[in-house]
């Protein structure tokens, strides 16, 4: 167990550039190993595999990957590629930006439909900021 802790400490010291995400990964792997009550070699093996595992991509990363592949397929270069990537990353599947989708959802709320004037303004402000 001490060897594992020493290895973990050395790994943390050597990966300064990845400190935040690597520390988070180390913490979650350690918590999972503890919850499974793993000991000795089983714990070492689990920690090794857990720390090697690639994290899942976030929705934004998936979108970036898709937009990048599309831009490459279209053979876009320079400012045309930049503009395409910008537009692609801003757009939702329905062509609206995230803020426009939020506005649409807030406007569709039955409460918003019945309010008028300052009450509607206050409701929309609250809805859009949440």
Structure report:
This protein has 130 residues and is an all-alpha fold. The chain is built from eight helices and no strands. Helix 2 (19-35) runs antiparallel to helix 3 (40-52). The chain starts with a helix and ends with a helix.
* Order of SSEs: HHHHHHHH
Tally of alpha and pi helices: 8
The multimeric state of the shown protein is single chain
Largest β sheet strand count, sense and barrel closure: none
User: What is the approximate shape?
Assistant: flat
Distance between the termini: 46 Å
- Helix fraction, binned, reads over 70%
Question: What keyword list fits this structure?
Answer:
130 residues; single chain; 77% helix
Please give a quick description of this structure.
The chain has 130 residues and is an all-alpha fold. Helices cover 77% and strands 0% of the residues.
What's the helix and strand layout?
Blueprint: H1 2-14, H2 19-35, H3 40-52, H4 59-73, H5 78-90, H6 98-108, H7 110-114, H8 117-129
